[in-house]
């Protein structure tokens, strides 16, 4: 990742590393980044509709359940249903043969000294950089990380959109904040 990292984004990444290590892995996943964003005061206003710890737990539970079903997004599940494929039946058959959670690829990996980023988190960071550039900002902040999480199609974006937290809404909220600061 190139460019300057503001202290708020650095704090989010550092917190995500701590959370990943606490879960017994050296790989930062979207769930670690999401939890770190919720704990960061700079990004919290953009995630207000999550409704505190209970709402965050619901989002995480929804994502865990989706990963159990192979990590498919809402649109991917709808496409399969449109083809007449019963995802519940497919998951049940796979789990009957391979055990519960066989389709969940988010299980902790062996712990290493170096921290790595999951492909999803790398994509979130790329989206955050794009959002920063589109807004003409100099430094990547925690707020850009929120925008990156919402701009990256996936399980967290779906779960947050179901609660009214969307990329368009977050951009609008940031624009309103920028106008207030100019006055």
Q: What is the makeup of the main sheet?
A: 2 strands, parallel
Rg over alpha carbons: 17 Å
- Annotated CATH topology: Double Clp-N motif
Number of strands: 4
Your description of this structure?
- This protein has helices at 7-22, 30-38, 52-68, 74-82, 87-98, 119-135, 142-151, 155-161, 167-182, and strands at 4-5, 27-28, 116-117, 139-140.
- It is mainly alpha-helical and 183 residues long.
- It has one domain: Clp, N-terminal domain (Double Clp-N motif, Orthogonal Bundle).
- The strands form two sheets. The chain has a two-stranded parallel sheet with strand order 1-4.
- α1 packs across α7 and α3 (52-68) crosses α8.
- The chain is globular and about 50 Å long.
- The model has no long low-confidence stretch (mean pLDDT 82).
Short structural summary:
The protein is mainly α and 183 residues long.
SSE diagram, text form:
Elements: E1 4-5, H1 7-22, E2 27-28, H2 30-38, H3 52-68, H4 74-82, H5 87-98, E3 116-117, H6 119-135, E4 139-140, H7 142-151, H8 155-161, H9 167-182
Parallel strand pairs: 1-4, 2-3
Question: What are the defining features of this structure?
Answer:
mainly alpha, 4% strand, 9 helices, Double Clp-N motif, 183 residues, globular, two-stranded parallel ribbon, two-stranded parallel sheet
């Amino acid at each position: 990742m190139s460019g300057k990292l503001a202290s708020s984004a650095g704090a989010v990444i550092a917190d995500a590393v701590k959370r990943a290590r606490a879960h017994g892995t050296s790989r930062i996943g979207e769930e670690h980044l999401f939890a770190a964003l919720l704990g960061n005061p700079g990004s919290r206003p953009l995630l207000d509709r999550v409704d505190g710890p209970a709402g965050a737990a619901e989002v995480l539970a929804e994502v865990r359940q989706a990963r159990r079903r192979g990590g498919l997004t809402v649109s991917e599940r709808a496409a399969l249903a449109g083809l007449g494929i019963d995802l519940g039946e497919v998951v049940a058959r796979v789990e009957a043969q391979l055990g519960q959670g066989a389709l969940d690829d988010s299980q902790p990996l062996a712990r290493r000294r170096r921290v790595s980023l999951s492909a999803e988190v790398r994509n979130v960071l790329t989206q955050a950089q794009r959002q920063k550039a589109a807004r003409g900002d100099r430094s990547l902040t925690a707020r850009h990380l929120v925008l990156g999480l919402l701009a990256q199609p996936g399980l967290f974006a779906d779960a947050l959109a179901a609660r009214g937290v969307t990329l368009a809404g977050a951009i609008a909220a940031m624009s309103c904040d920028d106008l207030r600061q100019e006055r």
